[in-house]
TrEMBL record:
One matching Pfam family: AMP-binding
SUPFAM superfamilies with a match to the protein in the record: Acetyl-CoA synthetase-like (SSF56801)
Domain AMP-dependent synthetase/ligase: 6-353
Gene3D superfamilies per the UniProt record, alphabetical: 3.30.300.30, N-terminal domain of ligase-like
AMP-binding enzyme C-terminal domain: residues covered: 416-494
Record GO terms (molecular function): CoA-ligase activity
InterPro entries the record matches: AMP-bd_C, AMP-bd_C_sf, AMP-binding_CS, AMP-dep_synth/lig_dom, ANL_N_sf
The name this protein goes by in its record: Acyl-CoA synthetase
Gene source species: Novosphingobium ginsenosidimutans
Length: 515
């Protein structure tokens, strides 16, 4: 299973379709382009085991690059196109990347990166000496002599601190067409077939869009790439391309559900057989509404870039246990107390996975302390999430441990409050954080992105408090509600709470200093 095989057996089948422009790359063209990428790396002295990087928007060449990297035996780093120049430069330096592929779209940012990190850059849609197209056109489109399977090296989103690279060894089997665990999950658990037409609405540098899309191409399916997510455009793409499979995050669901009913009913989504979601806990009412709309085709999993475990749940199972993220398919779930000891079923604690046979251990690149901190005394590893297992072994997430608010000695998890807030008809997005408070230690603050910013104000704040009052205990009620036109949320759905917490902490300290 590999695009190079499909290039021989089904050369004219689309491997990539850009949803907005309709630009198409067939499997034959993907094979030729990825060979040119591999040849270019070797011409630049990049060897097996070296590291390369890509920082660009969802672009027709994105997968041509990653498949070229995959057949070159390198570690390839996907860098968020929304990071600042110092953040990109940090990842380049930390990863040891020897070349960076970008595009004209990010030219101002990448120009600044060039001043900070002495790494060769090649850019698409850019004339002159940095032209990636010119450099690649000069390369043969035949396989390199030393083809060997490479692997991604992705960085955490940095929502709670500086991002860290998750590095796993190159595959033991050097064959580029080897199967892996994700292929098994795609085919068996999710039922995605080789003739799939798979919609990816999220940025391709992120773990899930990158790995799942490449797996669909590995088995022979077509990947339809949205240049940028828009709720109505996603529905239009499903109808236009007869999408059979897709992957979303809960914020995508929320935005689609907030569309007027006549807009939602305008598009045919009946071709959808499997709509996967992950990345963050999905509010129960949101998922119930999606199942009512699209039918029992919503599948959920819980996992991380680290690959230390994987849970799975179908729509039918979820409806019997609303809120669950499923049972483990890889790894053994262990919910532990502060001492690292397993707690009884139904008791909340930090979620760990015990590795099972064949699982590859991860490490955080250049950070042995963080690697050690992710494991407990038993050698089980954690992503830092908190939750519990019920008596049947189904896992429920509460929140991230690092997001917990301690107010007056009471532990409060923001996710529960956020899940309620986004169901309010006038709320587009919400973040709940703990801000410093002289009396309680921390107070609960809700930062709201309203559907209509013109409605922001005390009247809407009172309406939201009234909405929450019958559903939350008093200790969990936000003591402060603020409004923003936009929350600092990654396009992958991750919320940069660290930025909000730092902002409120700085404001508190400034007020205290001026008092």
């Amino acid at each position: 299973m590999h695009p190079s095989i499909h290039a021989k057996t089904n050369p004219d089948r689309p491997a990539i379709i850009m949803a907005g422009s309709g630009e198409t790359v067939t499997f034959a063209e993907l094979d030729r382009r990825s060979n040119q990428v591999a040849q270019l790396l070797r011409s630049r002295g990049i060897k097996i085991g070296d590291t390369v990087a890509i920082c660009m928007e969802n672009h027709p060449w994105f997968f041509c690059l990653t498949w070229g990297f995959q057949r070159s035996g390198v570690h390839y780093v996907g860098i968020s196109s929304r990071l600042t120049p110092p953040e990109i430069a940090y990842i380049l330096e930390d990863s040891g990347a020897k070349i960076l592929f970008g595009s004209a779209y990010l030219a101002p940012t990448l120009d600044e990166v060039a001043k900070l990190a002495p790494v060769e850059q090649l850019r698409f849609d850019t004339p002159g000496p940095m032209s990636a197209e010119d450099a690649l056109a000069a390369m043969p489109d035949t396989p390199i002599a030393d083809e060997r399977a490479g692997v991604d090296m992705l960085y955490s989103s940095g929502t709670t601190g500086r991002p860290k690279g998750v590095k796993i060894p190159l595959p033991e089997d050097p064959a580029i067409d080897q199967a892996n665990s994700l292929v098994g999950l795609v085919l068996m658990a999710f039922g995605i077939k080789p003739d799939a037409v798979y919609l990816t609405p999220a940025p391709l540098y992120h773990a899930a869009p990158l790995r799942w899309s490449m797996t669909v191409q590995k088995i022979g399916g077509t990947v339809v790439v949205m240049e940028k997510f828009d709720p109505e455009a996603a529905l239009a793409a499903i109808e236009k391309y007869k999408i059979t499979d897709s992957q979303f995050v809960p914020t995508h669901f929320v935005r689609m559900l907030k569309l007027p009913e006549d807009v939602r009913k305008k598009y045919d989504t009946s071709t959808m057989k499997c709509a996967i979601h992950a990345a963050a806990p999905c509010p129960v009412p949101v998922k119930q509404a999606m199942i009512e709309w699209w039918g029992p085709v919503i599948y959920e999993y819980y996992a991380g870039t680290e690959g230390n475990g994987f849970t799975f749940v179908t729509s039918q199972e979820w409806l019997t246990k609303p809120g669950t993220v499923g049972k483990a398919l890889t790894g053994i779930i262990r919910v532990c107390d502060e001492n690292g000891d397993e707690v009884p079923r139904g008791t909340e604690g930090q979620i760990f996975f015990e590795p099972t046979e064949g699982m590859v251990p991860f490490e955080y690149h250049n950070d042995p302390a963080k690697t050690a901190d992710a494991r407990n005394k038993h050698g089980w590893s954690s992503l830092g999430d908190v939750g519990y297992q019920d008596e049947d072994g189904y896992l429920f997430l509460t929140d991230r441990k690092s997001f917990m608010i301690i107010s007056g000695g009471v532990n409060i998890y923001p996710q529960e409050i956020e899940n309620l807030l986004v169901t309010h008809p006038k709320v587009a997005d919400a973040a709940v954080i703990g801000a410093p408070d002289p009396e309680m230690g921390e107070k609960v603050v809700a930062v709201i992105q309203p559907l209509d910013m013109a409605q922001a104000g005390e009247a809407l704040a009172d309406e939201i408090r009234e909405y929450l009052s019958g559903q939350l205990s008093r200790v969990k009620m936000p003591r402060q509600i603020d409004f923003r036109e936009q929350l600092p949320r990654e396009l992958t759905g991750k919320l940069y709470k660290r930025l909000l917490r730092d902002e409120y902490k700085a404001a508190y300290e400034a007020a205290q200093a001026g008092a």
